Amino acid sequence: MDILILAVIIAVVAVALIGGLVVSTSRRRRAPEPPAAPTAEPQVGEDAAAPATEEERRTVEDVALPGGPAPAEAEAGPAAPPAPETEVPEPSAGRMVRLRARLARSQSTLGRGLLTLLSRERLDDDTWEEIEDTLLTADIGVGPTQELTERLRERVRVLGTRTPEELRTLLREELLAQIGTDLDREVHTEGGISAEGEERPSVILVVGVNGTGKTTTTGKLARVLVADGRSVVLGAADTFRAAAADQLQTWGERVGARTVRGPEGGDPASVAFDAVKEGIEAGADVVLVDTAGRLHTKTGLMDELGKVKRVVEKHGPVSEVLLVLDATTGQNGLVQARVFAEVVDITGIALTKLDGTAKGGIVVAVQRELGVPVKLVGLGEGPDDLAPFDPEAFVDALLG
Ligand SMILES: Nc1nc2c(ncn2[C@@H]2O[C@H](COP(=O)(O)OP(=O)(O)OP(=O)(O)O)[C@@H](O)[C@H]2O)c(=O)[nH]1
């Protein structure tokens, strides 16, 4: 009997032990999988990570505003990357007037200098020579200086006695005549129809030597176009400096324009081609292509820019080739202009850094040199310091 009781106890203990093992094994099997490690690649669209659950979402009250107190929750967890803010740039019309004070400050030596000289009691040969020197110092160029002085001399002689208002009017008219009031200064942004019958955006190539403000001007122009209601795609075809593409992309992000870029040191023409392709697919109004401007050899530049233009033209004609020139570089700028004009058909000039020089006469000189109008002027480093060039506002700023 005792043996029987002992056998039953052993059997019960054995059953209990086996049962416990099975439960613990199955519990181990059901244990939750460790969370998958995040993938290194950023994901978009359908591949993107699932949206945050209701509990994780933050309401607008939880989001810290600039200058406001930080939400308590944000301190606890890692900060999410801030979404890029899209800005609404100010309209481009009338910018030149707003920037007149700045322009007048740097250019006043030309306008005021000329008016002072013309107001002298006696306008002898020495005074006319001084007038010529003032014009030459402002980089107007030899030909335009002689023309302007001769015309002024003649008109002052006919006028006889001169009031300051009369002198101002006269000088204004002559400066305007040199700059030209009837040139087509519009940046052309009308697209066309591609070979496949699709609507095609306008394509603008921005060329110029590095350091002239080419990338900045491309970014500012994107803002001007967005402000005027156009959609823009940017092409970072300056592949020789990764920072240039980053810089352009930042400009684009600020106004919601996508930037097409390639690998550093990649083929600029292929980036330009892809940018136009993207512009067509996205139904954009304008594609702005920032090109590289290494002037090491003319042949190198010709090969590179020529190829960019040819490749882009596979999509259709280019609307504008804008040459960016730094107004502070004087004669050097003219040499650059000449080389670029031999390489590619320039259709307009963007003159940068006009705020930092008293040499505004370069407007006249470069137009003469290339037979192409100044269409845009850079008047500062601010994002909206690019203005459509308005000769009258410019001359008024010169004369103070
Ligand atoms: N004051 C002033 N500065 C300007 C103007 N336009 C551009 N700049 C400055 O000029 C410098 C050069 O501009 P970038 O746009 O980088 O020149 P880049 O020609 O693209 O040269 P890379 O970037 O080397 O290709 C920057 O510091 C700009 O802020 C302007 O109209 N006025």
From TrEMBL:
Top-level taxon of origin: Bacteria
SMART domains with a match to the protein in the record: AAA (SM00382), SRP54 (SM00962), SRP54_N (SM00963)
Keyword tags: Cell membrane, Cytoplasm, GTP-binding, Hydrolase, Membrane, Nucleotide-binding, Receptor
Catalysed reactions listed for this entry: GTP + H2O = GDP + phosphate + H(+)
UniProt enzyme class: hydrolase
Record-linked Pfam families: SRP54 (PF00448), SRP54_N (PF02881)
Low complexity composition-biased segments: 38-52, 64-78
Gene3D superfamilies assigned: P-loop containing nucleotide triphosphate hydrolases (3.40.50.300), Signal recognition particle SRP54, nucleotide-binding domain (1.20.120.140)
Domain spans labelled SRP54-type proteins GTP-binding: 373-386
Entry membrane topology: Peripheral membrane protein
Protein EC: 3.6.5.4
Residues bound to GTP: 208-215, 290-294, 352-355
Family according to the record: Belongs to the GTP-binding SRP family. FtsY subfamily.
Subunit structure: Part of the signal recognition particle protein translocation system, which is composed of SRP and FtsY.
PANTHER family per the UniProt record, alphabetical: SIGNAL RECOGNITION PARTICLE RECEPTOR SUBUNIT ALPHA
NCBIfam families: ftsY (TIGR00064)
UniProt function note: Involved in targeting and insertion of nascent membrane proteins into the cytoplasmic membrane. Acts as a receptor for the complex formed by the signal recognition particle (SRP) and the ribosome-nascent chain (RNC).
Record-given protein name: Signal recognition particle receptor FtsY
